Amino acid sequence: MMKRGLRKITDRAELFYQIVICVLVGILCLLCLFPLLFVLGMSFTSEGEMIQKFYFVLIPEKPTLSAYQFILRQHGFFNSLWISTARTILTTFLTVIFVLIASYSLAEPKLPGRKYMLLFIIITMMIGGGLIPTYLLFSQLKILNKFIVMVLPCLGYTYGILVIKTFIEGIPAEISESADIDGAGDILKLVRIIAPLTIPSLAAIALFTAVGQWNSWFDAMVFIRDSSLFPISLVIRNLLTASSQQVVTGQTILSRMAPETLKMASVVVAIVPILCVYPFLQKYFIYGVFTGAVKG
């Protein structure tokens, strides 16, 4: 009887624990989802409805697409979308390749000058060259106002190199030794053994890089003058800067577009591509961050 009583108490405690956990997780999900719903709802709201509801709208009564139409009609919008897509894909692919090769090389204990290379990488993470020296360097390299100026400086992802290097060092040495016995060289081991084992961590690095490249606009603003090479983030930034002068006028206050609506619509346009990609990399992202951050 005592065992049955203890079992019932344990079952009730476990049920209570599960209910509390589900409620807390549900509240956390709502807190994370609320900003997205707010931004999405405000992007479809007219200025009159915003004023009536004190600029707090989750579900607009009379949705309007005026903000999205205004953004899509901007000159060069689709070209800038293509530039951002090409920049993100190319930079992410090259960064992953460079990070994998550099990490594999630095993970080799017998590499000459390995300690000095690691020290140099760590120093570059903490100390930057500055904007003016960087501009002068790019000017001497003759890559200003060219597409490559948005790609080339991003390939040396030092944080990613250290993460993947730590992961590679955690791979059992017996795997590499068995490959050596079979006569495999460094390139074959990198392609056939190291690369497949580091896919989760590389996916995390790729996601970090892709998000950063898609949202980046400052480098394009400084190093590029040709508007045909502007990424979508810079076009949206310029649009938001001049939104107070560019908002459609000549309409009633109940139907015209507010600057806040334009800002929220711009946020939606900017984050939708990343939101579409993230679910496919989520499992690799979570696993890769943990396995690459701690030496196994």
Q: Would you give an account of this structure?
A:
The protein folds into two domains: 12-71 and 242-286, no CATH class; 74-232, MetI-like (MetI-like fold), CATH 1.10.3720. It is built from 14 helices and no strands. The longest helix is centred in the first third of the chain and has 42 residues, at 2-43. Helix content is 72%, strand content 0%. It is flat. The chain is an all-alpha fold and 296 residues long. The two termini are 47 Å apart. It has helices spanning 2-43, 47-52, 66-72, 77-106, 114-126, 131-141, 158-169, 173-181, 186-197, 199-215, 218-223, 232-241, 243-246, 259-293. The model is unreliable at 246-255 and 292-296 (pLDDT under 50).
Blueprint (SSEs and pairs):
Layout lengths: L1 H42 L3 H6 L13 H7 L4 H30 L7 H13 L4 H11 L16 H12 L3 H9 L4 H12 L1 H17 L2 H6 L8 H10 L1 H4 L12 H35 L3
Radius of gyration, whole Å: 26 Å
State the helical fraction: over 70%
Beta strand count: 0
Please tell me the overall pLDDT: 80
Provide the succession of SSEs: HHHHHHHHHHHHHH
How many helical elements?
14
Category by helix and strand content: mainly alpha
CATH architecture of the largest domain: Orthogonal Bundle
Spans of at least 5 consecutive residues with low confidence: 246-255, 292-296
Q: Strand content of the residues, in percent?
A: under 5%
Q: What is the assigned CATH homologous superfamily of the largest domain? A: MetI-like
CATH topology of the largest domain: MetI-like fold
